[in-house]
């Protein structure tokens, strides 16, 4: 008789939907594509908003990522040399505004430890503080392989209360670093802090002719900064131009040359480009700032 009862039919459908949502959070995922479909359907039914949908997709992406997929490449690591004095390291601290830095001995393959900027405060405000060597303030560096699962790394970050890990390749050479912020950004999107202004958030000079560029940089800003002529009717952002040129969703490490610039994907997930490395042989514009 339940077949003739429309209320029973709706109740059954509702129950099935609720069970599907519950399984998303409580059951061991068996089929990622099915979970993604459930998330999209939940957003379509306005059971969750678009931000929540994006974060849930981000969680699913993170579960399939390795440290190599999200690390800051070796070439973009801001480091300090263990032999530098406090006056010598200040420019690096001011240019980068990080809270911690790997300290190296001669080159980036020899990490001596991690310096927390807050550990310098006692010397900055105490005129009678004794002289010190950077070595005296170092904290141990956490070393992980490129193959480390990102979800497992996030768990370790939380449990052991550290915020940065040095990533090494199979031969023990340093290939990059990962911070807890890098993982969280895969889930919630780009995180800007109070030190970021519009230009610093979008385009940052890393070395001579080498720049770190957000894929969301407005195309008119990019054209002005690099003297390029990308068609602003074709895309709103430089990431859109690069994505169109590739013709597919590129993975980290893929590169392409456009208008005299080399674009290398520094950070991306399965849905969008996040960060690009841009290598330019052109002279800087008048507004260029080191």
From TrEMBL:
Role, per record: Plays a role in the transport of magnesium and cobalt ions.
Similarity comment: Belongs to the UPF0053 family.
A Pfam family reported for this protein in Swiss-Prot or TrEMBL: CBS
Gene3D superfamilies: 3.30.465.10, CBS-domain
Protein's recorded name: Magnesium and cobalt efflux protein CorC
Keyword match Transport: yes
Domain of life: Bacteria
């Amino acid at each position: 008789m339940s077949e003739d009862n429309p209320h029973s039919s709706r109740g059954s459908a509702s129950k099935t939907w609720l069970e599907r949502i519950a399984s998303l959070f409580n059951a061991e995922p068996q089929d990622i594509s099915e979970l993604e479909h459930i998330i999209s359907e939940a957003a379509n039914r306005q059971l969750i908003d678009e931000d929540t949908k994006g974060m849930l997709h981000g969680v699913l992406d993170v579960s399939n990522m390795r440290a190599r997929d999200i690390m800051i490449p070796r070439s973009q690591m801001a480091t300090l040399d263990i032999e530098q004095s406090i006056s010598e390291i200040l420019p690096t601290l001011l240019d980068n505004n990080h809270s911690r830095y790997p300290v190296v001995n001669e080159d980036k393959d020899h990490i001596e430890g991690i310096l927390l900027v807050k550990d310098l405060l006692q010397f900055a405000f105490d005129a009678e503080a004794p002289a010190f060597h950077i070595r005296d303030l170092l904290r141990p560096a956490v070393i992980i392989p490129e193959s480390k699962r990102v979800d497992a790394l996030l768990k370790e970050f939380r449990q052991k209360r550290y915020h940065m890990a040095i990533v090494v390749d199979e031969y023990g050479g340093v290939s990059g670093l990962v911070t807890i912020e890098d993982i969280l950004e895969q889930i919630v999107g780009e995180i800007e802090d109070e030190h970021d202004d519009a230009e610093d958030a979008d385009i940052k000079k890393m070395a001579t002719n080498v720049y770190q560029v957000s894929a969301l940089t407005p195309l008119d800003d990019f054209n002005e900064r690099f003297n390029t002529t990308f068609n602003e009717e074709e895309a709103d952002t430089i990431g859109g131009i690069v994505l169109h040129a590739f013709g597919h969703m590129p993975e980290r490490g893929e590169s392409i040359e456009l208008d005299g610039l080399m674009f290398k994907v520094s950070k991306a997930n399965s849905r969008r480009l996040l960060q690009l490395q841009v290598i330019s042989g052109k002279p800087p514009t008048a507004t260029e700032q080191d």
